[in-house]
Amino acid sequence: MKPHNPNRVPTDVYLSFVSSLSGNRMTLLAGVIVHVATFLAVAAKTQSLVYVLLSAAALLVFCIRMVIFRRFDRVDKAKLSRVGIERWERILVAAAACTTAILGIGSGYAIFVVRDSFAELACISVTMATMVSVVGRNYGSRLAVDLQTFSCCLPMIVCSLMALDFYRGILSIFLIPFWLTTRAMANGVREFLYENVIAHRQISLIADRFDTALNNMPHGLVMVDPSNRIQVINRKACELLKIGDPDRLKDRDLGAVLRYGARYSFMDASQPELILRQLTQVAEEGLSRTLIHFPESLSLEFSAKRRADGGAVLIFEDVSSRVKAEQKILHMVRFDALTGLPNREYFGHLVQEYLDRHPKRRGPLGFMVLDIDEFKHVNDMRGHITGDHLLCAIAARVKVEAGNAIVGRLMGDQFVIFFPHTKSSEALDAEIRRVHTAIQGNYDVDEVTFLVSLSAGYAVLESNAFAMEEWSIKADLALFESKSRLRGGITGFEHEMDGRYIEQQKLKADLREAVAADALSVAFQPMFKADGTRIECAEALARWVHPEKGAIPPDVFIGLAEEMGIISDITRFILFKACIECVTWPDHIAISVNLSARDLRDNDILAVVSEALSTSGLKASRLHLEITESCLIDEPAAVRAILAELRSHGITIAIDDFGTGFSSLSYLDTLPLDIVKIDRSFVRNIAEDTRRLKLLRGTVNLARELGLKIVIEGVETLEQLALLNKHRSADLVQGYVFSAPVPSKEIGILSQALSRRAAQRRRSKVA
Fold this sequence. Notes:
InterPro entries: Biofilm_reg_signaling (IPR052155), EAL_dom (IPR001633), EAL_sf (IPR035919), GGDEF_dom (IPR000160), Nucleotide_cyclase (IPR029787), PAS (IPR000014), PAS-like_dom_sf (IPR035965), Rev_trsase/Diguanyl_cyclase (IPR043128). The protein is about 55% helix and about 15% strand. The protein is rod-shaped, with a radius of gyration of 57 Å. Helix 5 packs parallel to helix 7. About 35% of the residues are buried. By secondary structure, the chain is of the alpha/beta class. A hairpin with a 5-residue loop joins strand 1 and strand 2. The longest helix is centred in the N-terminal third of the chain and has 51 residues.
């Protein structure tokens, strides 16, 4: 880059070049002394007054230049425009040219007028020396170089030619290449300095940008040489490691700096070695990224890269927020959000971790599953928020009472406890039962006291026989036994439970095949008028005759079907079969079909009922649908809407087993009901227990006040029937006192027999 035109040179660089014209003032003083002394010596030798005048002129020009320099020094350089700089350049160059012109005139005068060898030699020598110094003093201005060399050489060339001396003329002509060479040298120096100034400016700019980027980057950076001495370290690195000012750490040993930080800041003694080991691993081409946890919840992730010269670059960042987020996510994955206990998966991990830590320990281990009895009613009566608070209170007590055992939450209202090694099975059995007893009792939650019981099942086995899934099954089998025997009880696993479990699983498989093959059958239990003179309706009851085990009780296989999720398939089968059979009966007899809770979870039952009626041709008024209180627990509003839709098509709705739940009385007013079927528990012992009879009559009167029809279930004796008729407590009676469940064809036969009997009674009355 050649600054031929000053306008192409940056203003600040141009100013520095012009300022150089007023520099090195001591050389000017030395020069003027030499000039004056030379001229005075020539004047003494030649007796020429001209050289005395030239001496005085040189002194005068020197003084003027000093005044100009002082004025230039006082100028505010920052406010100078390019035009102002050019004006000062012309002033400084003109003053300098006056000095060189005096020297050129003195040399020319010696050549042309004086013609004294000493005068010529002295004047020309001083002039040539001054011309050479122009390169060193005035390189910053092309104008200064040109004007000064021209003012020096031109008088000597002209006077040499005017002397009409051939040899002097030749020498004078040689001054022209000397002039050009001097000019070229000055230009070369100026261009060289200009390029270096520009390069320095660019390097400084890059260095400033690098420094800004380095000290504002979110990562800490340390660059070390092959001896692990710090070459570059940014401000973020010092802040993260708390090791002082970056400017004081250059050329320090990194290990020493880190150990100093460990001594006087928050690091412990082991952490500097971890960081240095990171660099070593890079050198050995090992792991190049590591996470180090510091006190004060600070986590730094380090990565390093080896440089070509053997040094390394260590980069690290604060990942504390990320680590905390990962820990939170990990906690959410591992622990139950409500109770804070380990979930099923993490519980299994903790158990396996314990076994791995104690591979050689011997002795029995315990595994217990807990189930809160009737917890669903807490949610129904008090709401899910109170239910959640109760769960948390139970979980906290379980954790405290379990001591060093591992506690987890399986699902819903179930907890699991793993008991570590003990000396004997008897001691472990006693500890398990102690924990079970301790966690039962009263819980004060949301200003309400709940009496809580938990059914429990447990298994005690040797540690070498442990298998999580197997133990879980054994504990579940024991829990099932507890719940079937006594609420709030506890049962230990026994080997015969495995056989019962296998038998139950086989029975489930056989039931699934039977349902898929429509291998179930239907029996019908008639409902009579209270005086027994007429059949008004018949309840369709599912029956299953196992090919090997014979008849399976309905309460067994219906419960299995609900557990397996195939109860709706049975409902569909019974509904279609019942509607088809009812069409063959006398028109006054209706058919009643039970619906399960699963049937009423969505609107699919509406389509099933409609299809059954249309397929069989049965009138909707002859179809009764029975529901139990359990159907209403999950989503009462949705169930109410489905029942209202069914009732709007003329279907009769009955509530079955009335009086066995917690809040059945409230359903009489809120549900679209037509019939109340009072449970057999109300009828039992009414002949002996007058209070039970009063309770039955009160329930009947309440239902009749609401315009509902009454069906009494489970009437088995004539004495019970007589009491019901005496107090007019039933519209219809269903029970063994009249008939057990019978095949479909028996319904028509019974109805015809009752009709003939009624006709005979009428004829006998007439006779």
